[in-house]
């Protein structure tokens, strides 16, 4: 497999590839369970928990400032892809639309299909995080999370929920799907936080 689909980073790239990762020549698609079928006209994004309940349409998101992002992408299954070019909306811009209780310290990301993953609010509300709807100037494919996915470049890719459709704000940490099934609570690639130690 190494050589055909993956390669070791070149010397000039080694400082951008965490320990134990290999560079992919493509953009692998890894999904647990079936790919959800989403009617774009009925798509909605909800906010609840320790936040004022709100519902947004895709048009609401598209009305926000759109930006180009270039970010490296690291999967817990040991592949990395450098210089991924996305188009999307900054998380920080979206946060200006909602009212969050100061007691909220954690978030549960929810997706069509029932997937969940948890993230601390300080890991979520960062300038470099965004909701993506294009990759390499093309609309996201369904397999990559269309119509919109979250991208959190500083954590392993399972925290970048595909098909995202809601944020539940929480006072205390609750574990999402992979976290309940043995993955690390946070998932920081440079610390190799792949799996839970308990």
Return the average pLDDT rounded to an integer. 93
The number of helical runs is 4
Question: Biggest β-sheet, characterized?
Answer: 7 strands, mixed
Radius of gyration: 16 Å
Query: How many beta-strand elements?
Result: 12
Which ranges are low-confidence, i.e. pLDDT below 50, for 5 or more consecutive residues?
none
Strand content: 25-35%
Q: Report the order of strands and helices.
A: EEEEHEEHEEHEEEEH
First CA to last CA: what distance? Answer: 32 Å
Q: By helix and strand content, what is the structural category?
A: mainly beta
Please estimate the helix content: under 10%
Molecular structure report:
The protein is mostly beta strands and 198 residues long. It is globular and about 50 Å long. The strands form 2 sheets. Strands 1, 2, 5, 6, 9, 10 and 11 form a 7-stranded mixed sheet that branches. It has a 5-stranded mixed sheet with strand order 4-3-12-7-8. It is built from 4 helices and 12 strands, in the order E-E-E-E-H-E-E-H-E-E-H-E-E-E-E-H. InterPro entries: OxRdtase_Mopterin-bd_dom, OxRdtase_Mopterin-bd_sf.
Task: Name the features.
mainly beta, 198 residues
Which SSEs are present, and which pair or pack?
Elements: E1 6-7, E2 22-24, E3 45-49, E4 54-56, H1 58-62, E5 67-74, E6 79-90, H2 91-95, E7 106-111, E8 116-120, H3 121-124, E9 130-135, E10 138-139, E11 149-151, E12 164-170, H4 177-180
Parallel strand pairs: 2-6, 3-12
Antiparallel strand pairs: 1-2, 3-4, 5-6, 6-9, 7-8, 7-12, 9-10, 9-11
């Amino acid at each position: 497999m190494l050589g055909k689909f993956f390669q070791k980073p070149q010397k000039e790239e080694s400082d951008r590839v965490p320990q134990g990762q290999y560079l992919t020549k493509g953009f692998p698609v890894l999904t647990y369970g079936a790919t959800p079928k989403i009617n774009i006209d009925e798509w909605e994004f909800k906010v609840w928990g320790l936040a004022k309940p709100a519902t947004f349409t895709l048009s609401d998101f598209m009305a926000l400032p759109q930006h180009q992002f270039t970010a490296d992408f690291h999967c817990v299954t040991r592949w990395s892809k450098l210089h991924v070019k996305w188009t999307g909306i900054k998380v920080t811009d979206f946060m200006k639309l909602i009212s969050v209780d100061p007691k909220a310290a954690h978030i549960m990301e929810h997706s069509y299909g029932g997937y969940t993953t948890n993230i601390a609010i300080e890991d979520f509300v960062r300038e470099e995080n965004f909701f993506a709807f294009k990759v390499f100037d093309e609309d996201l494919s369904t397999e990559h999370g269309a119509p919109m996915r979250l991208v959190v470049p500083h954590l392993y890719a399972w925290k970048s929920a595909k098909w995202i459709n809601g944020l539940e704000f929480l006072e205390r940490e609750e574990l999402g799907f992979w976290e309940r099934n043995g993955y690390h609570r946070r998932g920081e690639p440079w610390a190799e936080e792949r799996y839970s130690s308990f």
